[in-house]
Design a protein that fits this description.
Layout: H1 4-8, H2 16-30, H3 40-54, H4 57-85, H5 100-126
Helix pairs in contact: 2-3
Length: 127
């Protein structure tokens, strides 16, 4: 999944001067007045949104925390899926670091994502 760092072509540990330099370079490249590509306006808006978030320390910190949380959830979901896909694997119960409550949360989270995906597909089909 693309994030603001990807949009600007940066690593997550990018410094403020790197963020500003990347923004200026991409803004000039994708500005609708300078680029006639039909994707230019959308790309320019994404670049602006990324810069607006990452250029301010407070919003960058909050964004970084959300990214880390998303990464952690993805890791947990991948772990659970791997256990469901390969039930024949034997593992020590001491390795089972996910509580029953966390499993329920992730199962519900996964189900909500699937429901949202189905809804989006239905909306696209109606158009």
């Amino acid at each position: 999944m693309k994030n603001h760092y990807d949009t600007l072509g940066l690593e997550r540990n990018a410094q403020p001067n790197q963020i500003k330099k990347a923004y200026h370079k991409l803004a000039l490249q994708w500005h609708p007045d300078k680029n006639s590509d039909f994707k230019a306006t959308d790309q320019f808006h994404q670049i602006n949104e990324a810069y607006t978030t990452l250029s301010k320390e407070e919003s960058k910190t909050k964004y970084d925390k959300r990214l880390q949380t998303r990464d952690n959830l993805n890791d947990l979901l991948n772990y659970i899926k791997s256990q469901q896909e390969e039930p024949f694997l034997q593992y020590d119960t001491r390795d089972d670091f996910i509580s029953q409550e966390d499993r329920e949360f992730l199962r519900n989270f996964s189900n909500k994502q699937e429901i949202e995906t189905i809804k989006k597909k239905r909306i696209r089909k109606k158009k």
